């Protein structure tokens, strides 16, 4: 749960629930700069929540732990009107920050 407590990491997981994505795709969807995104992806990968697979020049990330998807699913039900739900519906909502995700 601690690995999911960061707003950027939570947003990454929300996007990955919809399917595998490259860092470039995550950067575009979440409007988060690559260094920050890579750091947060590393935290999720180290926690075993996501896994990456190299395809030519890009690494494609996906959820590796099905429990993360279940937790995100419950959060969707509990907070359907939060700004984060825009990510859950697959739409962009601008930069991810702590106040947006609260």
Approximately what portion of the residues adopt beta-strand conformation?
5-15%
Largest sheet: 3 strands, antiparallel
CATH class: Mainly Alpha
Count of DSSP-assigned helices: 6
CATH H-level homologous superfamily name: Winged helix-like DNA-binding domain superfamily/Winged helix DNA-binding domain
Q: Could you say what the CATH architecture is?
A: Orthogonal Bundle
What Rg is obtained from the alpha carbons, in whole angstroms?
12 Å
Structural class: alpha+beta
Strand ordering within the main sheet: 1-3-2
Number of strands: 3
What is the overall shape? globular
Order of helices and strands: HEHHEEHHH
- Work out the count of structural domains: 1
Amount of helix:
40-55%
CATH topology: Arc Repressor Mutant, subunit A
For the terminal residues, how far apart are their CA atoms? 16 Å
Task: Sum this structure up briefly.
The chain has helices spanning 7-17, 23-30, 34-46, 66-78, 85-88, 98-101; strands at residues 21-22, 50-55, 58-63. It is an alpha+beta fold and 102 residues long. It is globular, with a radius of gyration of 12 Å.
Can you offer a commentary on this structure?
With 102 residues, the chain is an alpha+beta fold. It has one domain (2-93): Orthogonal Bundle (Arc Repressor Mutant, subunit A). It is built from 6 helices and 3 strands. It has a 3-stranded antiparallel sheet with strand order 1-3-2. A hairpin with a 2-residue loop joins β2 and β3 (58-63). It is globular, with a radius of gyration of 12 Å. 25% of the residues are buried.
């Amino acid at each position: 749960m601690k690995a999911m407590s960061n707003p950027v990491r939570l947003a990454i997981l929300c996007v990955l629930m919809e399917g595998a994505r490259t860092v470039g795709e995550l950067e575009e969807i979440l409007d988060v700069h690559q260094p920050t995104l890579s750091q947060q992806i590393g935290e999720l990968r180290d926690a075993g929540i996501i896994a990456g697979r190299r395809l030519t020049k890009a690494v494609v990330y996906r959820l590796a732990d099905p429990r993360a998807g279940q937790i995100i699913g419950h959060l969707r039900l509990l907070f359907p009107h939060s700004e984060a739900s825009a990510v859950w519906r697959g739409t962009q909502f601008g930069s991810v920050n702590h106040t947006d995700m609260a």
